[in-house]
Structure formats: structure tokens, C-alpha cells
Design brief:
248 residues; 8 helices; seven-stranded mixed β-sheet
Length: 248
């Protein structure tokens, strides 16, 4: 009797994973009402991507589910594959090893993204055709602008966890970007981030009203004792026991 060896089971992920979990679309939209900075601060100063990642159009903002892509430097093969598989509302998060001397994305691929309803593209590499992309209205955030071309040679992975912009991004995480930067929120923490962001906005609105009423930064930020403990001195010390800080 001849025994057949069992087929080997691969432990490696496929190059392309299409089935990912996404947050509720309504929750994504509600999170998108807050600024990236507010979300970052509200969730304990977590999730901010590197400030190297900048918008080509500061008037454009976005929010959506992360669709992660790994490309080789100066190679956009897997980006083209990702556009094929991405769903409307997804944000393409494209890592190319922070290689900025190549424009891996331009107006042609921008139109392909726009036609599919892709929410935005965020890459640590370079893009080009920025004038056309701004006119197209697709939010694009990149590590650089470069006219240098790319090839289509190297396979990479789509929808695997990704170290990007000094943060870990998981497929399906929620990404928000605006004029000030980009922040990532874990898919399972979106509702909490919404609640914390709303509370932060309400508190900041209260502070603004108090400033308009004449209250001061030192008063509202409770800096009296902090400054005195640090030994602050002023040219008012000899005439004002409160050093111009105002009474506690």
C-alpha cells in the first residue's frame, strides 16, 4: 500500500488578501467630523502618522478604512493591484520603504481611484501630476513630490499589518487626514474615539468662550503653582507678590 504524504500547508499569507473587516460606515463618517489633531489628542496622543506625510492639497480631507499595500521602492505594481481590489470608501495606505525619489502615483491612477470611489491615497513615497490630482479632487498625502518614474516588477503584500509613518496600521483601521496630518484609529476603538473627540471639542469650545470673557491662559490651564515651583522670575517681582500671574 502506498501512502501519500499530506499536502504541505503554507504558513505564509497570500500576496493579496481581499476579505478584511471594516468599521461601520456610519461610525467612520461620524469620526470624520473631527480633525486629525483632535482625534490624536483625544485617544491619548496616539495614532499620529509621521509629519513627513503631507497633503498635496491642504483643502482636502478624508476618512476611510485602511487598505494596506506594500510596494518595492520605485515600483508601483502592487499599487495597481490594490486599486483593482479596493472597495469604495477605502483609503490606500501604500508603503514603499520611504523611497521619495520616484513618483509612484499620478493623475492616471488618480482617475482610476476616483472612478472606484476610493476615499484617498496615503503613501510614504513620492507622487506626481499634483496639479491634475488637485483638480481631480482626490485627497493624496505623500512623503514627497517627484517626477521620476517607476517600474512594475515586484510582488508585495496587500492587507497585512503595516509599519507606516512610525505607526502600526492594520487593515480595516480607520484613517483620517486633513491639512494638519494623518491619524489612525483601531477599528474596534472608533466609537470610543468619537466619544472622546466630542468631549475634547466641547471642552475647547468652553475654553474659547472663557478667553473671550477675559480669563487668562495661566488661570484656565492652572499654571500658577507649576510656574512658581519651577522658579519663574519676572521684572514685576519687586512690586507684585503675584509676579503678574494673578492671585491663585
Amino acid at each position: 500500500m502506498t501512502l501519500t504524504a499530506p499536502a504541505a500547508v503554507s504558513t505564509k499569507p497570500p500576496h493579496v488578501t481581499t476579505r478584511i473587516e471594516r468599521a461601520d460606515p456610519d461610525a467612520i463618517a461620524r469620526l470624520g467630523e473631527f480633525t486629525a489633531a483632535t482625534i490624536h489628542e483625544a485617544q491619548g496622543r496616539r495614532g499620529a502618522l509621521s509629519s513627513r506625510i503631507k497633503p498635496i492639497d491642504r483643502d482636502r480631507s478624508f476618512v476611510g478604512s485602511a487598505f494596506t499595500v506594500v510596494c518595492a521602492p520605485r515600483d508601483n505594481l502592487m499599487l495597481q493591484v490594490a486599486i483593482h481590489y479596493a472597495k469604495p470608501g477605502d483609503v490606500l495606505v501604500v508603503s514603499a520603504g520611504e523611497f521619495t525619489e520616484a513618483g509612484m502615483f499620478g493623475d492616471v491612477l488618480g482617475n482610476a481611484c476616483k472612478a472606484k470611489g476610493i476615499a484617498a491615497l496615503v503613501t510614504d513615497a513620492g507622487v506626481r501630476d499634483t496639479h491634475e490630482l488637485r483638480e481631480l479632487g482626490l485627497p493624496v498625502f505623500s512623503g514627497s513630490v517627484s517626477i521620476k518614474g517607476t517600474v512594475k516588477e515586484t510582488l508585495g503584500h496587500i492587507n497585512q499589518p503595516l509599519v507606516f509613518g512610525d505607526e502600526i496600521i492594520y487593515p480595516g483601521d480607520v484613517i483620517k487626514g486633513d491639512a494638519d496630518g494623518v491619524v489612525v484609529v483601531r477599528r474596534t476603538e472608533v466609537e470610543e474615539a468619537i466619544s472622546l473627540s466630542a468631549a475634547r471639542d466641547a471642552n475647547e469650545a468652553r475654553l474659547i468662550e472663557l478667553y473671550k470673557q477675559g480669563r487668562t491662559t495661566i488661570d484656565l490651564c492652572n499654571l500658577h503653582d507649576v510656574l512658581r515651583d519651577k522658579g519663574i522670575t519676572t521684572d514685576l517681582d519687586s512690586v507684585d507678590p503675584d509676579q503678574g500671574l494673578g492671585a491663585r
